Structure formats: structure tokens, C-alpha cells
Amino acid sequence: MASTYVNNLRVAEPADGDSGWGTSTNTSLELIGEALGIGTEAITTNADTHTSTVADGTSDQARAFRIKYTGTLDSNCTITIGPNTMKRVQIIENATSGGFSIIISQGSGANVTIASSSSKVVYLDGAGSGAAVVDALPDAIGADQIADDAVGADQMADDAVGVAVLSATGTASSSTFLRGDNAWEAAGGAYNDWAVKTTTYTASSKDQLICNHASTPFTVTLPGSPSAGNTVILKNVGAALVTIGRNSEDIDSVAEDGTLPQDNAVQLVYVDATIGWASL
Predict the structure, then answer these.
(1) Facing residues of 179 across strands?
(2) What is the pLDDT averaged over residues 238-248?
(3) From CA 64, how far away is CA 44, in angstroms rounded?
(4) Rounded to whole angstroms, what are the CA distances from 119 to 96, 133, 175, 215?
(5) What is the pLDDT of residue 165?
(6) Which of 3, 5, 65, 262 has a CA positioned 20 to 30 A from the CA of residue 276?
(7) Count of alpha carbons within 13 Å of 101, Cβ hemisphere only?
(8) Check: CATH 2.60.120.640 for 194-279?
């Protein structure tokens, strides 16, 4: 009688009376060792689908407990693991290049998506045509599993958590910081750096301006559509008169532009539509 391969590791099960038991047993032991090891399988370049069918009674990378998929992708790739009656746990790594996910499937049931450069522990339920793949450790490590202050500097290797590991919106750079809502924000103090202006200029909130022209008057226009608390600071050190353009908002409840003679300074803070910009 012929050997069968109906177990979850697809190793031979010799029938009673079969010859070659020694060879068959040795091969099966080798394959069991393979099933406890690490395998690597390449996906065809830019393939949208891939099939890993564990071979009956012969060496196969897909039999490994931990399997790493490699190759270059230009889209997400669905990997179907067979046979669809095989029930087992596997650690699967997406080591493909291109930045795309692999989708692990066994039948028409649920599947598991593994992002680029990530790994997941999954189990195959072996339910035949309707077989499903399930994430064995969903949310295994979350806030609820980490005690307060359990992870500090002593538990982190140098540079273990860098920008590439953080999932945040915006752009990280030497001049940004990570806010509490997981967004990168430009670093800066309460005001912008002092700037010298010698000609017409439209100010931004937090501007600190030194106005300096010996003879030609010019206008500094206040920010448009201001919000309460926006502020601009001006100092005129030049002989030329500086006009403060109100930009459709009142200044001290008056619908008129302001003026700033030489050696005068003012800080303007926007209050509301009634007062407009209040001079301090």
C-alpha cells in the first residue's frame, strides 16, 4: 500500500506492510525538523498572486514554522498556502521590497494582511475550500498590556526607536517635534525671530519686525483672517513713516489704518470682530 500525507506537516505515513520503512522514517524526521525551522520563498517579481503548496513527503521551504517571503512587488500580493486542509501555526515575514503588503490566504475565508518589513503569527484553520487564516496575536502588545512607566530609557537600546519606527503624520526633521496627537510640528518659540523690513510687507502672526528706511514711507499690512490671540510686534527705527495696514479689520475698534513714527513701537493682538487689533 502507498504512504499517505494527510497530516499537517505533509510527511509520509507508511501503510502496514510497506517496504522501506527506514528510509521513509528518516525522511519524515528530516521534514519534521524542517517544519520547526526557518524557510525563505521568493515571489515572482511584481506578481499579484503567489501559491505556496507544501509538498508531500519532500523538502519544501513553505513547511517551515517561520517563513520569509522575498521578491520585488509593485502592488499588494495575495499568497495562498496549501493544501487548504492543513492546520498549523506559522510566523510569516514580509521581506519583499517595494513597500507593499502580502495577504495570506488559504481558502475563501478570512485572510491576514502583513505590511512591508513586518511579521505576524497566524494560524491556518484547514477548513477546505472555505479555509481561513487568522491573526493569532491581534493587538498582542497594546496600552492595556504595558504597565505605566514600564518602558523607559533603560529598556531601550540606543537608537532602537527612531523616526522610521514611528507612525505619525507630517514630516520629521531637525526643526520639528512630535506632538501629543501623533503629528510632527515645526519647533519654535512664542514669536518668530526678529526681522528687518525696509519696504512693503504683509505680516504673519508672531512676527517681530524692525522697520527701517531713512526716507521712503512704506506699509506693513496686518495678517488677513486673523484668529483671537494672533499678535504682531513692530518697532520703527527709520526716519520714514510706517503705515500699519488694518487688512479689513479694525484697530482699537476703529476702521482706520495706524501709523508708526520713528522710534515708536507697538504690539498688536487680535481680539474679535468688534475690537479688531488691540494696540498694547
Answers:
(1) none
(2) 96
(3) 20
(4) 11, 14, 33, 69
(5) 62
(6) 262
(7) 9
(8) yes
